[in-house]
Amino acid sequence: MKVFFATDIHGSETCWRKFLNAAAFYKADMVILGGDVTGKVMVPIVSLRPGHWEVTFGGQRVQMDTEAELDSIKRKIRDRGYYPAVMSGDELDSLNAEDGSVDRRFTQEMTKGLEAWLDMADGKLRGGEIPCILNGGNDDIWEIDDIIERSPSVSFAESKVLDIGGFYLASMGWTNPTPWNTFREAPEDVLAAKIDAVVSSIPDMSRAVFNFHAPPYGTGLDEAPALDENMRPMHGGAVMKPVGSTAVKAAIQKYQPILSVHGHIHESKGVLRLGRTLTMNPGSSYSDGVLQGAVLDLNEKKGKVTRYILVNG
Amino acid sequence: MTAGALGEERPTLFLRNATGLVRGWSVRDSMIYATLSTNVVTLGMVEWTVQSSFPHGNLLYSILLSGVWVSFLVVAYTGLVTTIPRAGGDYVWQSRILGSGIGFVMAATGWWFILWLWAPIYGAVLSEEFFQPIFATLGTQSQAAWFTTSNGKFVVTLITIALAGLLVSVGMAGYARVQKWCFYGGLLGVLVLVILLLASSHANFIASFNTETHKLFGLNGAYQQVNASAATAGYVAPTFFGGTFGQSLLLVPFMMFYLLWPNWGTTLYGEIRGASDFRRVFSGMFIGLWTTVALSVVFLLLFAKTFGWAFYLNINAGQNAVSKAVLPIFPYPVMMAAWLVHDSAFQVIVILLMSLWFFGWVGTLFLSSTRVIFAAAFDRVLPDAAAQVSEKRRVPVASLVLMLLPAVGFGALYAYNATFASYTLDATLVIAVTYLFSAIAVVILPLRKPDLWFASPASKVKLLGVPVVPVAGVVTIGLLVFNLYEWLSNDAYVVNKHGSLIYMGAMYVLAIVIYVAARIIRARQGIDLGLINKEIPVE
């Protein structure tokens, strides 16, 4: 069985479209997206008067005078992983002024965007003929869970064990704490308990596959630039430090699945073996519109990963 | 649809709280990195000794010309960094824009294989600017002289390799702090040197030089001997502002040995970017480059004032084997300036302070090589074992072996084979070839990746409506092609010798063989390496 795994596309519509095409492109039997589906940036498009809008994007102020121009700029914004939010000047001012209004609008745009993506998936994945698995990541809001769960064309894997052609995929989008205090974060001991709870329902550990958003600590799959107190990279970004999860590492070492796939740390693309477990983080270049991923051959008879390659699709 | 300038009061985007949203790079940090890379003390002062290869060449003009020309390279690389801000630099850009094969061959040769040669070059610098002057100043001439022998050079190379290898093993965290303090300590050394040279007269220097060389080496009238030796050899030093433009231009390929590296830190840039990033990334490299150029000009002016310009060029001519050398050790300007104060302790302190320019930089010697080896292993071009690290101590054993063992071999060649040692500029040439392909990549970027390009802050930087970055790429190609042409056609640079060409050619052949072998072996294993950078259709 050939599986395509990608992660951390952060709202990039280009990457989502590529993800949906990846099964055909790599001749994969199944596609898995390992969390952090939603974007981080919202770009306000101000409605000046009926039929006329204005936006500042990519360092330039652009005025649009037709619906076609508006659609074109919205597409460009979405391709970058940003959310285009059309609003009046008054709405923009109130977003600035009212507490929590930016978060509410963000949530609205993220859920709307995800629903549009899932509609897109239905056509691309031949109505569910190609299995597509999604789970959350630490940056994903809670509201996405129900939306994905309801989708007929994708399977929501968060905190579940799914049977994928003779292998058991255990998924979890939670991570150890980050400096940004994001949605799905927990201290290491809590994380360890969550992992154990999920993994306990795997019937055969020799056929287990872990899909945990957080990479294992100190493995090279988790190296991010060290930041100072002002969240600025230290020493010109030359100093990296491990920021992965000790609970994830301990779980891999304890349960020894055949494969463990991760994301979260975009710059830390890599592969290593932890005991018998092939462990990898394909990294992410979502903002370039490049879908980094892993093409994996899982041999059901041998019960192992026979081939893999990390790709920049 | 119309586009206008920036400058509105309302917010133009909203960021939510999410992983990885950090503030931009510090210009100061990247400036320090760029200044240490274009190292005026360890590389500049060594390379200034070659002026006599083109006796009518003006050192000052060649440095200024190089600075202007390399500034275009800074613009071109800023364009690449802000458009594809990925750790891995040249390897990532070339792989994505020009193809995996070119990316691997250029990265393997320019960021890995040629670093084997940089190890003994750094060893030679450590010998010339640290061990030799320290031991000479302490009056232990036999020890100082030992470091000029083949054994001495080899041992220092081993020390350099061990130091760089150790830092790869223990990580950059502690070293980065050391590096910053080395920079500030080095600047203090520069300040001491500047005051010393400003406060002393030319007559003082002649007297001090003769006194110290008599005391340390038993020479009589060494200052006069240096000038006489040059005259005997028929070498006539140009005046400070004299010389010809043509020969000054021919000194530029020599100056690349130290001025071509303001972009050395670009392999480190991560994914952070924004409209202001172009200016920030550019400023770090540009200020770093021009800090080095400014320090070069200050040093040369002070050498001219206090040493005497003709004397400085004459003593370098001796080092360059154009005339007979009078000093038995490298004519390190820092040491000669320190002799103005007749106190060994003071002299040693000045040399130690200036050695911080070496120790602040040497640790990064193998840093980029490890990254290229890891990237190639993750791309399945190298065996998986090449990227393995020991679980307990996180030491990249295999990649260390791939770097250190050949470096030791080349260190031995460099120390014991005078012909091989003359191929020093190969170290610059091979990296320049890698840069050339990145410059080509930046020029064709708007055509090969139009969406990426137009979304990039780099595409908005225009002069008279013309995008600056691709134009800078063309000028950079001009710079590099000029240098490559001169290196390969002009005997004065020594790199076009038969053995040198075979050595460099062998590196490219080795990289190509590794890549082709990997393609074949992986294909047999059912893995198509051609897929690595093949783009998935969007629609």
**Percent helix among the residues of chain A?**
25-40%
Q: On the 0-100 scale, what is the average pLDDT of chain A?
A: 92
Number of strands of chain B: 4
Give the amount of beta strand of chain A, in percent.
25-35%
Walk across the major sheet of chain B and give the strand order. 3-4
- Tell the overall outline of chain A: globular
Say what oligomer this is: heterodimer
What are the secondary-structure elements of chain A, in order, as H or E? Answer: EHEEEEHEHHEHEEEHEEEHEEEEE
Query: Which regions of chain B have little confidence, pLDDT < 50, spanning 5+ residues?
Result: 1-7, 271-275
Give Rg of chain A in angstroms: 20 Å
- Spatial gap, N to C terminus of chain B: 25 Å
Structure description:
The complex is a heterodimer of chains A (313) and B (539). Chain A is of the alpha/beta class. Chain A is 29% helix and 29% strand. In chain A, the strands form four sheets. A six-stranded mixed sheet of chain A has the order 8-7-2-1-17-18. Chain A has a six-stranded mixed sheet with strand order 9-10-11-14-16-15, with helices on one face. In chain A, strands 5-4-3-6 form a four-stranded mixed sheet. In chain A, β15 and β16 (277-281) form a beta hairpin. In chain A, α4 packs parallel to α5 (143-150). The longest helix of chain A is centred in the middle third of the chain and has 24 residues, at 101-124. Chain A is globular. By secondary structure, chain B is mainly alpha-helical. Chain B has 22 helices and four strands. Chain B has a two-stranded antiparallel sheet with strand order 3-4. At the A-B interface, α1, β3, β4, β5 and α2 of A face β1, β2, α1, α9 and α16 of B.
